[in-house]
Amino acid sequence: MIKLNKVLSPDELEQTLQGIGAERYHNLHPFHKLLHGGKLSLGQVQAWALNRYVYQQGIPIKDYAILSNCPDKELRNLWRQRIFDHDGIDQDEGGIERWLKLCEALGLERAYVQSMEGVLPATKHAVDTYINFCRHAPLLIGFASCLTELFAPKIHKERIAGMLENYDFVDETMVAYFRERLTQAPRDVDFALRYVKEHARTIDQQQAVIDALYMKTGVLWAQLDALYLAYVSPGMIPPGCFTPVQTDVAAAQ
Ligand SMILES: O=C(O)c1cc(C(=O)O)c2c(n1)C(=O)C(=O)c1cc(C(=O)O)[nH]c1-2
């Protein structure tokens, strides 16, 4: 863990944040390597989509939590585009709807996904951690916690290509969510990164920005650890959680 002993220039701060992504972003997690490499069964991909729905539906709630700490009308107007991206507006159905379509295309019942009944306990706790962090953090730190999106376009590209190529049950409709994010995420993160570089001036502020990114990489990593334990190895599905018709654990090992 990085502990600062001097104030960084804005560019040094950015490099430090990039370094955290290179070391800890969830593109490095073994579950993602299996997912993108076509090594999971349909049931395991269903488990991923079902659990990830919790993260998807939590994102706009987290953004409302951030905005509840924002006294500036201009900033609120800028940030709320993120909420529209997920909840939808006008002709755009939004990312949550696109995610539900992905789940349905994988054979999951929409109502079951939305009920979140079958999700892993760790998934819920991880997403709650992110939302609660943003609810209580100063605005600068809430913005900083979103900076994992700096690293997201790379994993989205890998996922689109890997899933289309490696699974015969994956088609264009199912990757529509990620295609949309390829333009949304860079736009979002440009603004957040500029804001953080400009406003994190003291050593304490910069340390808090760094710690927020560590927290967030942990939120993402923990969700995949839980998926791996339950659905890959040792296949320890907690009581009441989604149980694929065929777990096909051996295929993934
Ligand atoms: O597929 C991914 O690996 C991934 C990661 C992240 C992220 O880094 O938090 C986001 C997304 N996707 C995503 O689609 C998304 O809309 C999103 C919003 C946020 C955020 O923190 O506000 N992260 C992410």
UniProtKB/TrEMBL annotation:
One Pfam family matching this protein:
TENA_THI-4
Task: Please name the SUPFAM superfamilies in this protein's record.
Answer: Heme oxygenase-like (SSF48613)
GO-annotated biological processes? pyrroloquinoline quinone biosynthetic process
Reactions that this protein is recorded to catalyse:
6-(2-amino-2-carboxyethyl)-7,8-dioxo-1,2,3,4,7,8-hexahydroquinoline-2,4-dicarboxylate + 3 O2 = pyrroloquinoline quinone + 2 H2O2 + 2 H2O + H(+)
Its UniProt pathway annotation is: Cofactor biosynthesis; pyrroloquinoline quinone biosynthesis
Q: What is its EC number?
A: 1.3.3.11
What EC class is this?
oxidoreductase
Top-level lineage group: Bacteria
Q: Which InterPro entries match?
A: Haem_Oase-like_multi-hlx, PqqC, PqqC-like, Thiaminase-2/PQQC
Keywords, alphabetical: Oxidoreductase, PQQ biosynthesis
Q: Where is the Thiaminase-2/PQQC domain?
A: 15-225
What are the protein's GO molecular function terms? pyrroloquinoline-quinone synthase activity
Homology family: Belongs to the PqqC family.
Job description of the protein: Ring cyclization and eight-electron oxidation of 3a-(2-amino-2-carboxyethyl)-4,5-dioxo-4,5,6,7,8,9-hexahydroquinoline-7,9-dicarboxylic-acid to PQQ.
Protein name in UniProt = Pyrroloquinoline-quinone synthase
